Amino acid sequence: MRISTSKSESMVLAWKKVECLLRVGEEVLPQVEEFKYLGILLTSEGRMEREIDRRIGAASAVMRALNRSVVVKKELSRKAKLSIYRLIYVPVLTYGHQRWVMTERTRSRIQAAEMSFLRRVAGLSLRDRVRSSDIREGLGVEPLLLHIERSQFGWLGHLARMPSGRLPLEVFRTCPTGRRPRGRPRTRWRDYISRLAWERLGVPPEEPDGSGRGEGCLGIPPEAAAPMTRIRISGRK
Q1: Could you tell me the pTM of the whole model?
Q2: Does 60 share its domain with 138?
Q3: Number of structural domains in the chain
């Protein structure tokens, strides 16, 4: 394999800045704090907040471009507007969502972006004080958070069925060694999906020793990847 040094960069994934000189032949690759890979922004801190902000910003740009010509155009049927919502707006907003760790702030922002489009389709505004759940029900649209969580469980199912040795599965199972930095540790995706499986499906975290205490390195059982039928979405209405 030949590496094009003019198109290559290096990045260290660490909680604090670490200098790393990576040489390819006689050249040292420039070290960066973030870069895009397959359309997703990766940062040296391993956080997803900036990527989620980018997705919300990109979705807002799509809505601004479509607002007058599509979203609020009376000549266009509601069915056509919802098709544009599902086929254009939602994919832009949720690209790469399978690996997101959904905090309450993230949920609130995703719901706000979702309802910003749907209210316009319904011909309503915040001043009308109509509940989001009523708007979705009237349009026949499921909550976007439900779609996100279902896809995340789908990715968990892929992990559960992977043979040993596959890199995504090994990364998922890995428990880093060494001392943690001071302060509360960040929520890992495996911790988030384990808690989500418990809240939505009633599947308790399974410990390697069978204790089920929810401590240490969680082993997600295959049952957590079972298809979801109905799950409750909490958050702003």
Answers
A1: 0.78
A2: yes
A3: 2
